[in-house]
Design brief:
Layout (H helix, E strand, L loop, with lengths): L2 H21 L5 H8 L3 H7 L3 H26 L2 H16 L5 H10 L6 H20 L9 H16 L7 H12 L16
Helix pairs in contact: 1-2, 2-3, 4-5, 4-7, 5-7, 5-8, 6-7, 6-8, 7-8, 8-9
């Protein structure tokens, strides 16, 4: 890519981030172009779809969250790693109002620019979930799709002005349902675990 084209692309991403954070992912591409001081054709030349723009904007965050899952898996107990990662994902998705709806759709749409990143992110969460399930500390009837949907649901609740004040409590309620141990004894990774 030529240097001037790269500068234009970087400028569009710099402008798009705050606009999408403020107005949500449904903001018009024309408004993003106008705020960036370019024509719509210029924006569409770099990012032909909203999903392509979001993928470029969020690529680093997707990569960081995937790497964070690996880091937590090595450094924390199964329960703590899963809970921390889900909480970080929910917090991240609330930065861009409405992004979880697009992410949920992208999982099922291989043609979406977000598909690959979302599938990779879902797989990272599934590994953490499976690790917690292996020690009997997480529901066995869940899979990575369920976990991804729960993250989307919690992020959606955090986006709703009437529910936002309750988002931490809702997270704790959902977390306790997901991480309920499979028996009445201590959790396999809790105090006294080998």
């Amino acid at each position: 890519m030529r240097a001037d084209a790269q500068r234009n692309r970087d400028h569009l991403l710099t402008v798009a981030g705050p606009v999408i954070a403020e107005q949500g992912v449904d903001v018009s591409m024309r408004d993003i172009a106008r705020t960036a001081g370019v024509g719509l054709a210029t924006l569409l030349r770099h990012f032909p779809t909203r999903e392509a723009l979001l993928e470029a904007l969020l690529h680093t965050s997707f990569r960081d969250l995937t790497a964070r899952a690996d880091e937590l898996e090595r450094a924390r107990s199964a329960v703590d790693a899963l809970a921390a990662w889900v909480r970080e994902c929910v917090a991240w998705t609330t930065e861009y109002r409405g992004v979880t709806v697009l992410m949920a759709a992208a999982i099922e749409d291989p043609d979406s620019a977000l598909h690959s990143s979302c599938v990779t992110l879902r797989a990272a969460g599934a590994r953490l979930l499976e690790r917690a399930q292996a020690v009997g500390a997480a529901r066995g009837d869940m899979d990575g799709d369920d976990l991804f949907a729960l993250i989307a649901m919690l992020a959606w609740a955090g986006d709703q002005p009437a529910l936002a004040p309750r988002s931490d409590r809702l997270f704790d309620i959902v977390g306790s349902a997901v991480l309920a141990s499979a028996g009445s004894g201590p959790r396999a990774d809790g105090p006294g675990a080998q």
